[in-house]
Design goal:
single chain, 243 residues, mainly alpha, 2 strands
Length: 243
């Protein structure tokens, strides 16, 4: 802060640190990994997530009811992971523009990434509202009531899970990663781009689970590859910033 006399008056000027686009991309990429660690630890310990998503309703609902606070904490963190994907998609758009890559396709790619993040939130939010309510009701219901609640759980889980996982995590995220990979290769980040392309292909391949449920196992490979890509992307951005 400095005081500078101007025409007999004192003017106070402040200089705030600016965040460059590479630094912003790096920060948002690291945030993805840091936030994702929360549901992995909290939900993993409490309900055996993500394997618990495949449990029958008669087992999943009591598990949620017995660990309700952990479920809320874990899924709130997972919700923030998805929300943080929106600014990351547009930060990468700005990065591409700074490297001379702009136009309708780059804009569409940013909106594709943002849409993936939003669809993921629509799938996740059921665990902050509907699923806890069903789990609580299930714990106090008689046999007939439990059967009805279990049917509602299966229907909601199938629909919202498809919105969040099939559309958000697998289809749109896969397409966004592939498009982003091409852009990164084009601006000289070949290794980062190729790793992102691999993650995108794995997510897209997982969408074939609608034809063969066994293909869903690819998700267990796609997620670690994507997390590694975020870290590699962050490192590449920080190296460029240092240079």
């Amino acid at each position: 802060m400095s005081a500078i006399p101007v025409s007999g008056r004192v003017s106070v000027s402040t200089s705030l640190p600016t965040v460059t686009t590479p630094r912003l991309v790096a920060g948002l990429a690291i945030l993805q990994v840091a936030l994702f660690a929360v549901p992995m630890v909290v939900l993993g310990r409490a309900i055996g997530w993500p394997a618990s998503l495949r449990l029958p309703a008669s087992e999943a609902l009591p598990l949620v009811a017995a660990n309700l606070q952990a479920v809320l904490v874990g899924y709130w963190a997972y919700l923030l992971v998805s929300v943080a994907m929106v600014p990351l998609a547009f930060a990468l758009r700005s990065l591409a523009a700074e490297r001379g890559r702009s136009g309708p396709m780059i804009d569409a790619l940013a909106f594709l990434g943002a849409a993936a993040g939003i669809l993921k939130t629509l799938g996740i939010v059921r665990w902050l509202s509907a699923m806890p309510a069903l789990a609580t009701a299930h714990a106090g219901a008689d046999a007939a009531g439990r059967a009805t609640i279990e049917t509602a759980y299966l229907a909601l889980n199938a629909y919202a899970g498809s919105v969040g996982e099939l559309l958000g995590v697998q289809l749109l995220s896969g397409l966004w990663l592939l498009g982003t990979a091409a852009v990164l290769v084009g601006i000289g980040l070949r290794l980062t781009g190729l790793l992102g392309g691999l993650a995108g292909l794995l997510f897209l391949a997982t969408t074939l689970r609608t034809f063969d449920p066994a293909i869903a196992a690819l998700q267990s490979v796609a997620v670690p590859v994507a997390l590694l890509w975020f870290l590699v992307l962050a490192a590449a951005m920080l190296r460029r910033r240092a240079a």
